[in-house]
Amino acid sequence: MTKKYGMIIDLHRCVGCGACNLACKSENNTPVGIDWASHKIETYGVFPKVTYTHTPTLCNHCEDAPCVRVCPTHAMHKTEEGFVVHDPSICIGCKSCMLADPYGVIHFNTKDAFIEFATDTSSEVKDGTFSKKELSDKSKAPFPNFNAERGAGGYEAIRRAGAVEKCTFCNHRVAKGLAPACVVACPADARIFGDMNDPKSQITKVLKENKPTVLLPEKGTNPKVFYIGSYN
Amino acid sequence: MYLLWDIRVSLDLFLGGLGVGAFLMGAVLYYIDAKIYEGIVKKAFIFAPLLVMAGLVLLLSELGRPMNVIKTLYAINPTSFMSVGIFLQLTFVALSLYIAFSVLTKGTVILCAKVVYTCAILAGLVGLYHGFLLSGIAREPWNNAMPVIFFVSSILAGSSLILLLNINSAEEVAKKFKLPIVINMVLTLELAAIFAWVYNLALTTASSKHIYDVLMSSFGVEFWGLSIVVGLIIPLTLFTLVLLGKTTFKSVFVLASIAIVVGSFFLKNLVVYLGQMA
Lengths: 232, 278
Description:
The complex is a heterodimer of chains A (about 230) and B (about 280).
Chain A: E1 5-10, H1 19-28, E2 38-46, E3 49-57, H2 66-70, E4 76-78, E5 84-86, H3 96-100, E6 107-108, H4 116-119, H5 132-139, E7 164-165, H6 171-174, H7 181-185, E8 191-195, H8 202-209, E9 225-228
Parallel strand pairs in A: 1-9
Antiparallel strand pairs in A: 1-8, 2-3, 4-5, 6-7
Chain B: H1 7-33, H2 38-62, H3 81-106, H4 113-135, H5 146-165, H6 167-177, H7 179-203, H8 206-218, H9 220-243, H10 249-275
């Protein structure tokens, strides 16, 4: 049976520390302003009885993904394992996927990511601190925290201007038998990732034991990121 | 507000619509009598591909990676209206350029009727595609009324532009084909389609109701003033006065035609903008 990967986020365990976001940025070389793993905060109630929820968000890798449906070149496509991934080499940058995506998790590169590490020679303290270009040169990488592994399988390790990008469920890590970076980094073990077609997997068991919810169920996209528990 | 699709997309849909409408007007007159209406048909067939191409150039300039457009020719996604539309527009531009070249060099009589017929079908499909492009993305303001609204608006604006380009013969055409009645019927159809669109927004989901409120509260001038009153009500009133014998076609058609063209742009621009607010 083919694999069908999904993720559970336990909102009761999540402490909202943002480690998932940081791990994602390090793993996937995303620049400032582009967060494949993010969160939304909603406030409820009337003062003094107010409360809020913190919900981590990422691409839902939907079964019926609207972004895949509207992409004119199949740049946004589904893999056999159910990952919704993007091929920047054939993306025309029309942004249709962003408009069709109801979750707001697809991002557009208006400029080459980390380009300042190739061009910015200014330093905070002259002859005292490194410029961004010097940091890049010294570390022999496009930018100091560059993860070359992200370029596995021909994917642009750092995305150039004019194309979109989004969470891939760390498919380059999953191919090596590893869990996505956000799952590994979570200090509260709030994220469970695995094959939903495997009856023995933890994700299948937890999904059976709980009543999971998904974001925007009314959109009918059949997301594969599930939420259990409650933030409060 | 950061717009994913800026005014260049609206202009592409507007100019493309003008081209499609112009070609269809030219095709109708070509089939009625290519000799008598040679001047109008010529201008319609020459302007049509130029307008569509001008829109496509603007669209290309809006794309993040315009050079990759060539890849749409082999990386086809049949579920994407844009993917299908690229083929429709390319075929229409190629065929209409051939027709324009033939008309310029040999006149209208030599044209192959089957080629004009094929190109007219393509023009119709491109006109519908403009609306399907939006409705296929399935955002609340871009509902299923889009293809009708865009297509009818394109026919109105394109044929008005051709009348404006043929001021001297416009009255004769108007008399022969009772244009005030025909245009008023199409204007009424457009009003009905817009009413269906807005009614649908106001009644369906919470987010569509929110968009309806935004449309009425923040875009009143663009919607009621420029799109409805200027683009539809003023021409409808002027042509009604012509039908009632209160004025002549000659004295109102320039103003009415300009109003229709201007209204078409503002309506399309508003729809493109509103969809991105949902």
